[in-house]
Amino acid sequence: MPETLAQSLQTYIEQHQLGRFKRWWVAFSGGVDSSVLLHELSLLRPQFPGIELAAIYIHHGISDNADRWLQHCQHFCQQRNIVFQSISVELANTTRQGLEQRARQARWQAFAQLLDKQDCLWLGHHQDDQVETLMLNLFRGTGVKGAEAMKPLSRKQHYWVARPFLEHSKHSLKQAAEYYELSWVEDGSNNDEQLSRNYLRHQVLPAIEKNWPEVKQPLSRFSQHMQQTSRLLDELAEQDYQQVKVTLDPSWSKTFQTVIDSLSLTKLKTLSSDRLVNLLRYRMSTVADYLPSSEKLNEFARQIETATTDSNASLNWSDFRLQQSGEQLFIVTESDFQPTVCSKQWVQFPESLDVPELNLRLEAKASDKGIRAPTKDERVTIRTRVGGERCWPDYRNKSTSLKKIFQELDVPHWQRNKWPLVFYNNEMVGAVGLFYCKPFMVADTDLELPDVNISDVKPSDVNISDENSFFESQSKVKNYFELTSTRLKK
Fold it and tell me: What residue stretch is flagged as signal peptide (predicted)?
């Protein structure tokens, strides 16, 4: 039996080309499943000398035995010369069922913080786990995605997750553990039948197996069929996505990285209802593990089918939002809707300026178009909108309110209060990446003007020196600059 398990594991590694990773992290609880997996991988290390094998133990602090389990896992890894790391997580007080959910979320958050794109996370889930997951999802009225249960290999944010034992029973893993004379821990909470999975495991499945002893094998195959169906639906969704996606304005992609996706409302309406829902689910699943219910998603799709450019269709899920604005449907992070107030002097202009409040950096460089440099008496300030601002934008023949300009340029409403504006004293001279105010613009005959670009930076403190330092070096600085490398055409 262990030989069969080892051969299966090696075939799995070759099939999925897992030798390409730099590190293999095993989620190690000390239970029999992860113990067998970690031991088997340790035996394969000579075949993969360029890969570091490591184990990670998540200390939830739920059980009184958690510290003892931690010591067991440390000793297990020391015996095999395996890198070991433990991470403690804090869980809010809640119901027992809710506590299990919070613990699961905390584990995934810990994995995401630890692993990078060169890592593969290995989990010891087996066929019994697969069947339980499938049945629990079916009881909730799941669709194709839920009927997939767990995939043998899947992408999780920036790293990959491997589950090589999904076709092996719990019994076969115990046989392997006994053959290798492994020691493992038993979590008493697995017998708590107040938890849905445990009730299914100890009461429902044994009753079913009395009449259908081999029921787990066909149920496992059913999940494999659903995985194939899901791949076909994803291929169709990708084809539809290529037809409806909208390329983001370069200034938006630089200024607002939280805009994840943009879809054409008009083209979305050409899809059938089923294909529209399939496409939305496909794109949403690329950014979040948990999706809204089918009822909510179907209702949102109906709103899109009847939406006009004045509509405001919106759907929140996880930490993200589907938000319509005019002719486009955006996928954005929920944090993008949090108000941001910013007012920061650009004292050392034209040297770079970090604006942590907006997660931006402004820099000056030479260009042949732009706005004039500030005079000695003008303070340069980067601000966000407070209301009442007016400007004569470069694409118009008269002045108007900033609110009207944002509407004319189709700036999504949730971005308008975050957009960086440039002021000389109290007069607005432009909006970064969007427009200039004509009274401050450079004449077409002027040449060799500095330019301002923006790029994302991590928030950091900015050291401000004497504002007169700029004016003392005027002879070294050109007299004009441009706010971005791209401009709107008239």
Answer: none
d(CA 310, CA 289): 31
- The answer to the question of whether 29 is labelled as a binding residue is yes
30 is in an annotated binding site: yes
pTM: 0.74
Q: To which H or E segment does residue 406 belong?
A: helix 402-408
Give me the domains of the chain, ranges plus CATH numbers: 1-215 (3.40.50.620), 233-337 (1.20.59.20), 343-440 (no CATH)
- CA distance to 252, 312, 329, per residue, from 324 (Å): 16, 6, 4
| DSSP one-letter string for 186-245 | --GGGG-TTSHHHHIIIIIHHHHHHH-TTTHHHHHHHHHHHHHHHHHHHHHHHHHHHHHB
The annotation status of 31 as a binding-site residue, yes or no, is yes
Tell me if 32 is assigned to a ligand binding site. yes
Q: Is the pLDDT of residue 19 over 50?
A: yes
Q: Is 289 exposed, middle or buried (0-12, 13-18, 19+ CB in 10 A)?
A: exposed
Q: What is the Cα–Cα distance from 279 to 252, expressed in whole angstroms?
A: 24
